[in-house]
Design a protein that fits this description.
Layout: H1 26-31, H2 42-48, E1 53-57, E2 62-65, E3 72-84, E4 90-94, E5 113-126, H3 151-168, H4 178-187, H5 194-202, H6 205-215, H7 229-236, H8 238-249, H9 259-286, H10 291-300, H11 303-316, H12 322-343, H13 348-355, H14 370-379, H15 415-418, H16 421-430
Antiparallel strand pairs: 1-5, 2-5, 3-4, 3-5
Helix pairs in contact: 3-11, 3-12, 4-5, 4-8, 5-7, 6-7, 8-10, 9-10, 9-11, 9-14, 9-16, 10-13, 10-14, 11-12, 12-13, 13-14
Length: 433
């Protein structure tokens, strides 16, 4: 979903936004359109932002530090910050991006230090203000009302409860399976090579068998089959081995005790597997995007939804209906997904692909990129989950216009996808879907 309209910068206070918002600074009106604050009514928002401050910080200065600033959340409006994680690795976020449509918090374990890299303007506010499900607090001008029978209000308050859990660190983010983590670390270490990867793979019989199966599949067809793990890794390459093993280990990450949540998780996994297989084929056809990375990006693009499905009953103590599924996907899926993928040290391209999975009009790159493959895969998913956006006509999808061969079938689907149905099914099966 595109947030370009919601991130637009107002030039002045609009008189049409209601008397409650009259006189608020332009920077405060900008966070009015961000997540989850945009779900508040005007009087509640106006009361809440009495406790917010608009601040500016020059490049080189810290924005927040874990251990000192946990009581605050930050909305980055302009400029750029570098977030350094608990392993000393960093990534950058720019004001106005999809990721900064959500508040930043030092509570998340992977975010321990934020330093301004380009002069920044941001809004700082107490983190506990997001906890609208809590008892009313005696903050001047702000009183949280009791829940009514109105379903929209109940959904909003429960949504804020989950948002607050994300910010205060009580929301449990999953860990990448140990074997996948060790193989990714080895593959990304310039001091290690194929022999190190082979030793790790050979230590796990299931992973070793999977590598042999992949290397001998149609995707890597060759004159003779490989018999050993070393030959399999050599045929696939270190980077592809890393990404394919990561994809294979993800299936068992999520489980649920109750049947309703288990059914939703199964739906999410099947959807992600289909998007992974479609993305793989589209990337191979494009010859511009690494196919194995597209497969992995497709498989993790909804990782936020999987986490939300698992955590929702814990923090909201309520069943999820179809309306709430769409709200969760629209408001929090991207935020949770980016947190998980950042914590797993996935590259920016995969994080962006998860955030932009249904951004039908994105035109950031002239040529087809990883995010475009995920978008086009969504346009061809024959059984989208309940939380997916409505797919526009393919001619209205910006990624379609970047294809070298955009030939359509009579059913208005990409011909390249319809001709690759057998390959798509094979990849789907290799993922264990």
């Amino acid at each position: 979903m595109s947030l370009s309209n919601s991130l637009a910068r107002p030039t002045e206070t609009s008189t049409t936004e209601g008397d409650a918002l009259a006189g608020l600074p332009a920077e405060i009106l900008r966070i009015r359109k961000l997540i989850p604050l945009r779900r508040l009514d005007d009087p509640t928002f106006a009361a809440l932002v009495q406790h917010a401050s608009v601040e500016r910080r020059a490049a080189g200065k810290p924005l927040f530090r874990a251990g000192f600033d946990e009581q605050w959340i930050f909305y980055l409006l302009d400029g750029e910050v570098e977030i350094v994680d608990d392993r000393g690795q960093g990534f950058r976020l720019e004001g106005g991006s999809l990721e900064t449509a959500h508040p930043l918090s030092p509570h998340i374990k992977a975010r321990v230090l934020a330093t301004v890299t380009r002069d920044a303007c941001y809004v700082r506010m107490p983190a506990d203000l997001l906890d609208l499900k809590a008892a009313p607090r005696a903050r001047a001008g702000l009183e949280v009302q009791e829940l009514s029978d109105d379903s929209k209000e109940i959904d909003n308050q429960l949504l804020f409860a989950v948002s607050h859990a994300l910010m205060d660190g009580s929301f449990t983010l999953p860990m990448l399976p140990d074997i996948a983590l060790r193989i990714r670390d080895a593959a990304n270490d310039p001091g290690k090579g194929v022999a190190d990867i082979v030793k790790l793979v050979q230590a796990d019989a299931v992973i070793a068998a999977y590598c042999l199966k992949i290397a001998n599949s149609a995707a890597y067809v060759a004159a003779s089959p490989v018999q050993g793990v070393q030959d399999a890794v050599m045929r696939m390459g270190v980077a592809a081995t890393r990404d394919l093993i990561t994809a294979f280990t993800l299936k068992d990450l999520f489980s649920a005790l109750d049947s309703d949540t288990r059914a939703l998780m199964r739906m999410a996994w099947q959807h992600s597997s289909r998007i992974a297989a479609l993305s793989y084929v589209i990337a191979r056809h494009s010859q511009r995007v690494n196919a194995e990375q597209a497969l992995l990006a497709g498989l993790v693009h909804d990782i936020g939804m999987l986490v939300l499905l698992r955590e929702w009953p814990v923090h909201a103590q309520s069943a999820i209906d179809s309306q709430m599924l769409k709200v969760l996907a629209r408001e929090l899926n991207g935020a949770v997904g980016s947190m998980v993928l950042r914590a797993w040290h996935f590259p920016d391209s995969i994080v962006s692909a998860a955030l932009e999975a249904e951004h039908w009009t994105r035109t950031e790159q002239d040529g087809l990129d990883l995010s475009d493959c995920i978008v086009l895969a969504h346009a061809h998913d024959k059984a989208p989950p309940a939380w997916s956006d409505t797919v526009p006509a393919i001619e209205h999808i910006a990624a379609y216009r970047k294809l070298r061969d955009g030939t359509l079938s009579p059913s208005r689907r990409l011909l390249l996808v319809e001709e690759a149905e057998k390959e798509i099914r094979a990849v789907h099966e290799l993922l264990g879907a």
